[in-house]
C-alpha cells in the first residue's frame, strides 16, 4: 500500500499525542533521503522518522535505530541550525493531501520567539522535506526544484511555499461530498467498471487497497463491478470516510504464510483470506516499522554497498565462467587414454606400417573381441614418429588433467569465499560493518578493483552478543574478519563453537562459565539456533549445525579470512525462530 492521505492523517494524530510539548534533542540524517528527530517529551524519548525517498516514502514515530554517517550532510546541518532545542507545537495535514506541516516553537537569529516549520511531502518520487519560517518562506529544501526540473512548480530557498497543484479529484472528507453527490457520480459510471477504479478516479487521497476493501465490503469481491456493488457501495464508502473524519483508524498489517508483511492499512482488511493473516498492532509507528524495516534495511544496504555488490557479482561471474571452461577442457582430457592406445597399437604393429599411410586399421589386443581400430596417420611422418605424436598428446592431457583439477579446486574455494562475503554482506547493519568487509576484500587481493579505497587503522572487529534464556553469553562474528578474531583470539579454547553445516554463515561461540564444561541442553539448542539464523539458511527448516570445542577448530596457514577446518564434531538440527533470536540479541 502507498502511504496515502488517510494513513498520514492517522500518523499525524499519533505524533500530536506523543510529541506534545516535546523538545528536539538531536537531529540526524542517516542517508540522503532520511531524517530522524530525537524529541524528548513527557512520555519519554521518541524518534520521529521522515523518509523522502522515491520508494518507501513515509513518516512515523519509530523505535528502529539507524547508524549515522561520521560527517553530517549539509541539510542535516541546516536542520540543526533552525531546530536544535526547538519545542514541538503541532502536526497538521495540508488539506487531504500527502503533505504534513510540523510546527516548532523556536527563536530567530535575533533571539526573538518565532515558529518554524518542517513540511514533509510524502509523494513517491516527488517526496521532499522543506524548511519554512512563520510566513512560509522557504529557508532550506532537501531536493531543490528549479525551472529545468519542473515548469509547473519550483521549490527553492527564498520562495514562498505552495502546495503541489491539485489533482482533478474530490476531497472525500469535505462537506460537499455527500451521498447525493456520490450517487450522481456512480450513476454516470459504466456498470462493468470496477468499483476500485471508480473510487480512485473520482476521490483524492485513497490508496488502491482501501478502494478494494470498500468494494469487497459492498459486494464480497475486491474486484467487484459497479453493478455488483451498486446496493452497498455508497454506505460502505461513507463508513470508510467516517473513520478518517472521527479519527478512528486502527493499525492493521497483513502477513503471508511465511510471516512476510505484504500490506498495511488503518482499517481491518477483510479482502484477504487464508493463508494471509491480518494482525492489529499497538501503534501506527510500530505498524510502519514492521512493514518497512526489512525492506528499508535492504534498500539502504544496497545503496551504501553498491561497490561491494558489483565487485562480488563480477567476481562470481568471472569464476563461474572460468570453471565452466576448465571443466570442458578437463572432459577433453579423457581423450588422452585413446591417444595412448593408438600409440601402443602403432608401436606393436610397426613392422606392418609404412611412411605415407593416411590411416591404419589395427586390431585392439586389449579389447575382449579384438575389435579393429582406425587410427589417423600423418603421411609425412614415419610410423614411429606417428606413435610419438600420440604419446606426446597423452602426456600433455595427463599433465593438463592434474593442472586443471588443481585450478578447478582453487576456483571452487574462491567461489565459496565469495559466497561467505555475500552472506556477511546480506546481514550487515551499518557503515562500520561495510568498512570491515571492504578491508577484508582489500587484504584478500581485491584492492585493485576497489576504487578510492584507502586502508585505515585496524580496530577491534564487530562482534554481536546474544544472551540465552538462562543467561549464557553467545558471541557471533559479523563477517569473515570478525569470525577469525572471534575463533582464534577472543574465544577460550574450552568454549563451544557452532557453525551451520556446509553453508556460508557466522562463527558462533557459546561462552562457558568458570568451571563449566557442558552447559544445559536448552542452551546448546539456543546457540545452534543463533548459528542457523546468522547464516544463509536462516529461512530453512531443520537446519544442520555443527558444534565442538573451540580447541578442535583450526585455521590453515595462509587461508582466506573466515576459513577454518575441523574433523571431530557433533551435529544437531534446529529451525531458526526469528522472534526468539532477536529477543536474545543484546548488542
What features would you describe in this structure?
With 587 residues, the chain is α+β, with helices and mostly antiparallel strands. Helix content is 38%, strand content 20%. The chain is built from 15 helices and 20 strands. The protein has helices at 5-19, 74-83, 179-188, 195-202, 208-219, 226-229, 233-245, 284-304, 306-332, 335-348, 383-426, 431-446, 480-490, 521-533, 578-584; strands at 23-31, 34-41, 44-51, 58-62, 87-93, 99-107, 113-121, 128-132, 138-141, 252-255, 261-265, 277-280, 359-363, 372-376, 463-467, 473-477, 496-500, 508-510, 543-549, 570-574. The protein has a 6-stranded antiparallel beta sheet with strand order 15-16-18-17-19-20. Strands 5-6-7-8-9 form a 5-stranded antiparallel beta sheet. Strands 1-2-3-4 form a 4-stranded antiparallel beta sheet. Strand 8 (128-132) and strand 9 (138-141) form a beta hairpin. Helix 4 (195-202) crosses helix 5 (208-219). The longest helix has 44 residues, at 383-426. It starts with a helix and ends with a helix.
Amino acid at each position: 500500500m502507498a502511504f496515502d492521505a488517510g494513513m498520514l492523517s492517522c500518523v499525524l494524530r499519533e505524533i500530536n499525542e506523543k510529541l506534545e510539548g516535546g523538545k528536539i534533542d538531536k537531529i540526524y540524517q542517516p542517508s540522503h533521503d532520511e531524517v530522524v528527530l530525537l524529541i524528548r517529551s513527557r512520555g519519554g524519548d521518541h524518534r520521529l522518522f521522515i523518509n523522502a525517498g522515491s520508494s518507501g516514502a513515509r513518516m512515523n514515530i519509530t523505535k528502529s535505530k539507524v547508524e549515522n554517517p561520521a560527517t553530517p550532510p549539509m541539510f542535516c546541518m541546516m536542520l540543526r541550525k533552525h531546530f536544535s532545542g526547538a519545542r514541538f507545537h503541532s502536526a497538521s495535514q495540508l488539506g487531504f493531501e500527502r503533505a504534513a506541516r510540523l510546527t516548532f516553537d523556536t527563536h530567530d537569529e535575533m533571539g526573538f520567539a518565532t515558529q518554524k516549520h518542517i513540511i514533509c511531502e510524502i509523494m513517491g518520487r516527488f517526496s521532499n522535506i522543506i524548511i519554512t519560517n512563520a510566513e512560509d518562506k522557504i529557508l532550506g529544501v532537501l531536493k531543490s526544484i528549479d525551472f529545468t526540473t519542473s515548469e509547473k512548480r519550483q521549490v527553492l530557498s527564498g520562495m514562498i511555499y505552495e502546495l503541489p497543484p491539485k489533482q482533478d479529484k474530490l476531497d472525500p472528507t469535505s462537506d460537499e461530498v455527500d451521498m447525493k453527490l456520490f450517487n450522481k457520480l456512480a450513476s454516470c459510471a459504466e456498470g462493468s467498471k470496477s468499483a476500485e477504479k471508480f473510487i480512485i478516479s473520482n476521490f483524492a487521497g485513497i490508496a488502491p487497497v482501501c478502494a478494494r476493501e470498500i468494494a469487497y465490503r459492498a459486494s464480497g469481491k475486491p474486484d467487484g463491478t459497479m453493478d455488483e456493488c451498486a446496493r452497498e457501495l455508497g454506505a460502505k464508502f461513507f463508513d470508510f470516510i467516517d473513520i478518517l473524519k472521527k479519527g478512528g483508524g486502527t493499525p492493521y498489517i497483513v502477513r503471508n504464510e511465511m510471516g512476510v508483511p505484504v500490506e498495511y492499512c488503518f482499517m481491518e482488511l477483510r479482502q484477504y483470506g487464508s493463508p494471509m493473516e491480518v494482525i492489529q498492532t499497538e501503534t501506527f509507528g510500530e505498524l510502519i516499522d514492521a512493514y518497512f524495516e526489512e525492506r528499508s534495511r535492504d534498500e539502504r544496504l544496497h545503496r551504501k554497498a553498491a561497490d561491494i555488490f558489483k565487485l562480488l557479482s563480477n567476481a562470481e561471474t568471472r569464476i563461474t565462467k572460468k570453471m565452466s571452461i576448465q571443466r570442458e577442457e578437463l572432459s577433453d582430457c579423457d581423450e588422452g587414454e585413446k591417444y595412448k592406445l593408438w600409440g601402443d597399437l602403432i608401436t606393436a604393429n610397426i613392422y606392418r606400417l609404412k611412411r605415407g599411410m593416411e590411416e591404419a586399421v589395427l586390431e585392439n589386443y586389449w579389447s575382449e573381441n579384438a575389435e579393429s581400430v582406425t587410427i589417423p596417420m600423418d603421411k609425412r611422418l614415419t610410423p614411429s614418429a606417428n606413435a610419438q605424436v600420440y604419446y606426446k598428446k597423452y602426456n600433455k592431457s595427463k599433465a593438463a588433467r592434474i593442472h586443471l583439477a588443481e585450478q578447478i579446486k582453487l576456483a571452487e574455494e574462491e567461489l565459496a569465499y565469495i559466497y561467505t562475503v555475500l552472506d556477511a554482506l546480506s546481514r550487515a547493519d551499518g557503515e562500520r560493518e561495510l568498512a570491515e568487509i571492504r578491508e577484508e576484500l582489500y587484504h584478500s587481493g581485491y584492492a585493485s578493483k576497489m576504487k578510492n579505497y584507502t586502508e585505515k587503522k585496524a580496530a577491534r572487529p564487530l562482534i554481536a552478543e546474544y544472551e540465552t534464556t538462562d543467561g549464557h553469553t553467545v558471541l557471533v562474528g559479523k563477517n569473515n574478519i570478525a569470525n577469525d578474531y572471534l575463533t582464534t583470539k577472543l574465544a577460550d579454547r574450552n568454549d563451544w563453537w557452532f557453525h551451520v553445516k556446509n553453508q556460508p554463515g557466522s562463527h558462533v561461540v557459546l561462552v562457558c562459565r568458570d568451571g563449566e564444561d557442558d552447559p544445559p541442553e536448552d542452551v546448546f539448542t539456543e546457540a545452534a539456533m543463533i548459528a542457523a539464523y546468522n547464516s544463509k539458511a536462516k529461512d530453512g527448516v531443520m537446519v544442520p549445525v555443527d558444534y565442538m570445542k573451540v580447541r578442535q577448530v583450526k585455521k590453515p596457514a595462509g587461508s582466506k579470512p573466515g576459513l577454518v577446518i575441523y574433523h571431530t564434531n557433533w551435529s544437531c538440527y534446529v529451525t531458526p525462530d526469528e522472534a526468539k533470536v532477536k529477543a536474545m540479541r543484546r548488542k
